[in-house]
Amino acid sequence: VLNTLADNPNLVTPSIKSTLASLSRSNPTLLTTGPPPEPSTYQLKATALSQAVPFVGFGIMDNMIMILSGDYIDLTLGVMLGISTLCAAAVGNIISDLAGVGLGTVIEDFASRMGLPDPKLTSNQMKLRSVRFASQGGCAVGITIGCIIGMFPLLFIDSKKAEKQKKQSGLDMLFMDVVNEAKSLVGAEATTLFLVEGDELFARYVGGEESKHIKEIRMPLGSGIAGRVALTGDPAVIYDVREEPDFNPSYDSSTFKTKSMCCVPVKDVEGRVVGVVQAINKLPQRRDTGGGGGGKK
């Protein structure tokens, strides 16, 4: 417009001159031609600050959601499905990015109501390298500060909890396989793996029909047949538990009755008893009839 008026002075009316003079007084850089003037230090600082504050909020939100969601996924799906911690963190990052899409405008609106200083730059000044550098620098500083603050949930998270649960889940599966294989090998109606915990013995893994009815069993070392085996380290084979004074019938349920029992101690490399494998009710051996001779096998 200014170039057109300069080339055609006959188009400049008194009203246009008055308007141009008013604009010149309110913003001296508005009517200048040629390269835009470099912004002042205050304008550059205001530009950096106006960009940094929203990114502080975005960094806090992004990092906090990623850490909390990744930790929750690691403790749930990570334990159940056996996925790695890095995979859980990647899923948490996806969740935080999706949250950023929805909450980004909320953070920007909140920052705009904070009364941050306006750099009052023209459209041409905003294209200057110094202004772009101040804007990008403010974004970088803001997101860095926000991400550091957003890591505060790490102060309250047990970083080893998920790893412990994954190891425990693997041990549970291994011990259940051992209990079930022992039941099949011995030919028992049910098997139980007791573990020593301090001065107590408790049933941790149960295989067979008994697993449907058993409740948590805890007994002092030396109490009951399994407790005696854990205390002495000597195996015990009981053909009729009714004749055994250490047998405690209170552990039987209304649908499961113990008749015979075999208890074997489980020892570590130093010979200390760490558990007891208990087999209950020896099943009668299966008899198959041969097709040719008709005899028993």
Automatic annotation (TrEMBL):
InterPro entries: GAF, GAF-like_dom_sf, TMEM65. The keyword Transmembrane helix applies. It is a multi-pass membrane protein. It comes from the Eukaryota. It is found in: Membrane. Keywords: Membrane, Transmembrane, Transmembrane helix. Signal peptide: none annotated. GO terms for cellular component: membrane; mitochondrion. Residues 171-284 form the GAF domain. The chain crosses the membrane at residues 75-95, 133-157. The keyword Membrane applies. This is GAF domain-containing protein. It comes from Triparma retinervis. The lineage of its organism: Eukaryota, Sar, Stramenopiles, Ochrophyta, Bolidophyceae.
